[in-house]
Task: structure prediction
Amino acid sequence: MSAGFLQTRAGPFSPVDRGGSRDYISGTFCPSEEVRPMKRTRFVLAAMVIVLSIPAAAAPQAAPPSAAARSVRYEELTAPDFARAVAQSGGTCLVPLGILEKHGPHLPLGTDLIDCREVALKAAAGEYAVVFPPYFVGQIFEAKHQPGTIAYGSRMMLDFLQQTCDELARNGMTKIILVNGHGGNDAFLHYFCQSQLETRRDYVVYLFAPAYDGATEARLDKMRRTAVDGHAGEEETSVMLSHHPQLVQQAKAGDESGADQKRQAGLKHAYTGIWWYAGQPNHYRGDGSAGNAEFGKALFEAEVAALVEMIRTVKKDTVTAELQKRFFDDAAKPLETRPFVKK
Result:
């Protein structure tokens, strides 16, 4: 219940300090007993008794939504319908992972968050799965110098995602698909998936890793206008234009440079954590002014199609859980592990 419902409001059943009372049958104000005939009072009381003694008709109960009409959005399901959704999805849940960070001078801070959830929602509508609410706890230390960035600590990132997966599994979601929308999460999520082998688990975490066939790649390359891209450039701007054009301020895309500044050009055969800031201090790589909705729609549809295909294979997959169980059994008694022999 919201705070507004807790506030006292004048209404048919509110006391009124006007030297009288409110007629609860008609809702009109009645003068005090001193100026009202007793006969009228008895009539009103009798009417009240009659009305109150009539049993109220039970309000018709809405039927639970059919499988076809059931929402894919986790937050929209009732508790009873959530249980049905778990069964309908085969215990499959999509967790779209975005971030809150600068996206050039023209895209919203939540671009990754918005985009990957749109992909997940569209794919889940094609092959039923439950889509977790917006998730923005990820790796974004490299953008802490830019306004609006929310960068959580390393330990919290791991713990938060692990406990989210644990809780989903406790609620029957034993096949969890991470749908990443943020490039800065790549290394973190690969490590997270590898860390699932740290201790025995009765669920499987899958990371969506789309790979397109040659024909799709060729079609997308033909539509691409720029050679350099990477963050808030042609691709991300195009995709946002395809599903949330009202959030794109494309006229501002040229206000800042998205070129690689090459400030570590003299360093050879080395990797440092400052590499992104060294090349893209504006947290922008590419040219968003080249973005267009047609290209964005093609990119979006290709990713959705790949995710639909993945969901279908994950639902059918029994091998991964079996292998994971066998691994944990062997890991508990490594001296008894026998050499693998292909049958």
Summary: The chain is about 40% helix and 5% strand. Residues 1-57 have pLDDT under 50 and may be disordered.
